[in-house]
């Protein structure tokens, strides 16, 4: 427990990171997490991640899409970011589809950059810029 308290205290103190809990509207039930890493105010850029819907009962119901859209609005409209980027395994079609629906574009591939399950995997770098987000919002 002491380790968890220390981790939480350091997380709150670290201005380059933010972690949020995803909750249902009805009942305010926590169902996952979403966050930002490497918040760089000077360059107006941040890494998106730490997204997890922890209970399969809530998967495929649009919670991840809505949480991503809300996080992007927070990044661009509240934190004044110009660029939000992420890394995703190239074989994670479900996540890639989600990110593309929210306006992210593939920037490049980190070839065989992660070792998992007995083999190397490619990782995609994806990003969305403020002007793309604003255009995306106008067309929705």
What does this structure look like?
The protein has one domain (2-139): Gcn5-related N-acetyltransferase (GNAT) (Aminopeptidase), CATH 3.40.630. It has helices spanning 2-13, 63-78, 93-101, 130-139, and strands at 18-23, 30-40, 45-53, 83-89, 105-116, 119-129. Helices cover 34% and strands 40% of the residues. Strand 3, helix 2 and strand 4 form a beta-alpha-beta unit.
Could you say which overall geometry the principal axes of the C-alpha atoms support?
globular
| The level-1 CATH class | Alpha Beta
Q: Average pLDDT, to the nearest integer? A: 91
* Structural class computed from helices and strand pairing: alpha+beta
Low-confidence stretches: none
Q: Per CATH, which architecture?
A: 3-Layer(aba) Sandwich
Number of helices: 4
The portion of residues assigned to helices is 25-40%
Q: From the alpha-carbon coordinates, what is the Rg to the nearest angstrom?
A: 16 Å
Tell me the CATH topology.
Answer: Aminopeptidase
Biggest β-sheet: strands ordered side by side in the sheet: 1-2-3-4-6-5
The assembly state of the depicted protein chains is single chain
Span of the ends, CA to CA: 45 Å
CATH superfamily: Gcn5-related N-acetyltransferase (GNAT)
- Summarize the main sheet: 6 strands, mixed
The SSE string, one letter per element, is HEEEHEHEEH
């Amino acid at each position: 427990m002491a380790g968890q308290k220390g981790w939480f205290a350091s997380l709150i103190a670290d201005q380059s990171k933010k972690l949020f809990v995803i909750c249902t509207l009805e009942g305010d039930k926590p169902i996952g997490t979403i966050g930002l890493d490497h918040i760089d105010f000077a360059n107006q850029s941040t890494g998106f991640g730490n997204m997890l819907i922890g209970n399969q009962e809530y998967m495929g119901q649009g919670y991840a899409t809505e949480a991503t859209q809300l996080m992007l609005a927070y990044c661009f409209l509240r934190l004044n970011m110009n660029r939000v980027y992420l890394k995703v395994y190239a074989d994670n079609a479900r996540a890639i589809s989600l990110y593309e629906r929210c306006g992210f574009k593939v920037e490049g591939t980190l070839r065989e950059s992660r070792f998992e399950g007995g083999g190397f995997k490619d990782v995609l770098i994806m990003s969305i810029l403020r002007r793309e987000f604003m255009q995306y919002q106008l067309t929705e």
